[in-house]
Automatic annotation (TrEMBL):
<feature type="domain" description="IclR-ED">
    <location>
        <begin position="72"/>
        <end position="255"/>
    </location>
</feature>
<dbReference type="Pfam" id="PF01614">
    <property type="entry name" value="IclR_C"/>
</dbReference>
<dbReference type="InterPro" id="IPR011991">
    <property type="entry name" value="ArsR-like_HTH"/>
</dbReference>
<dbReference type="GO" id="GO:0045892">
    <property type="term" value="P:negative regulation of DNA-templated transcription"/>
</dbReference>
<protein>
    <submittedName>
        <fullName>HTH-type transcriptional repressor AllR</fullName>
    </submittedName>
</protein>
<dbReference type="InterPro" id="IPR014757">
    <property type="entry name" value="Tscrpt_reg_IclR_C"/>
</dbReference>
<dbReference type="InterPro" id="IPR050707">
    <property type="entry name" value="HTH_MetabolicPath_Reg"/>
</dbReference>
<keyword id="KW-0805">Transcription regulation</keyword>
<dbReference type="InterPro" id="IPR036390">
    <property type="entry name" value="WH_DNA-bd_sf"/>
</dbReference>
<keyword id="KW-0804">Transcription</keyword>
<dbReference type="GO" id="GO:0003700">
    <property type="term" value="F:DNA-binding transcription factor activity"/>
</dbReference>
<dbReference type="InterPro" id="IPR005471">
    <property type="entry name" value="Tscrpt_reg_IclR_N"/>
</dbReference>
<dbReference type="GO" id="GO:0003677">
    <property type="term" value="F:DNA binding"/>
</dbReference>
<dbReference type="Pfam" id="PF09339">
    <property type="entry name" value="HTH_IclR"/>
</dbReference>
<feature type="domain" description="HTH iclR-type">
    <location>
        <begin position="9"/>
        <end position="71"/>
    </location>
</feature>
<dbReference type="InterPro" id="IPR029016">
    <property type="entry name" value="GAF-like_dom_sf"/>
</dbReference>
<keyword id="KW-0238">DNA-binding</keyword>
Amino acid sequence: MVTEHGGGNQSVERASAVMRAFLHGRAELRVSDISRLTGIGQSTVSRLLATLESAGLISKDEASGFFRLGLDHVSLAGVVLNNHPVHREARGVSQRLAAKTGLGVNVAVRDAATLFYLSNFEGEHAAKSHVLMGNRYPLHATALGKCLLAATTAEERRTLLGEPLPSYTTATVTDHARLDAAVKEAATRGYTTEIEELALGRACIAAPVRDYSGGIAAAMSLSGPLSAMNVESRESELARVVIEAADRVSLALGYQAHVMV
């Protein structure tokens, strides 16, 4: 919620809150919806929407009166992604891997306490009706997230994620002791797995992407329906494939295993 009063950057904060209201799951919102989600008065919301619309950041359906995010956000996102070193180096590798395996290939980074998707490419066996790019998912319930958490200590994870860890399915890791074990195992064998921990019927295998410093900069994964992943019999095969792909991206980022301390 954003308060109505205050100086300085208050207008920028309120405009940001208005745009972030569309992250709550609905693509189209009324003024009253945005007011409720942000705590900003409807008259102020209306003025902010008019300003954002003139800047191309908000568009309005004149027939229904509903508002949605404007296409200029796509242009801004393109600039961010095209200048992100991980996305730039992983894009071609991911596309080829998705075509070769028929599975989904995802690349993500950690942003504070969340997993942030930089890209996803879909193979023929892992088609989706939505784009994962830009989505935020929980770190503890995903293979990608557990890879990224390998760059943290147990104490840092407790501070970062808090307790208890949210449950999404009966398979979700919900206590830190089990999460510690999963992260330790990932560091030992070089990859992580996720089988119905975030969503039923889905599986994922991920490997870390390292930069020139040797630190974990991102993670790459293969994902898809349980029937396509068939982790029980294909785990070693899929792990090898995703590790090799992640290593190619790491090398492109300047990682040199032989000089790691």
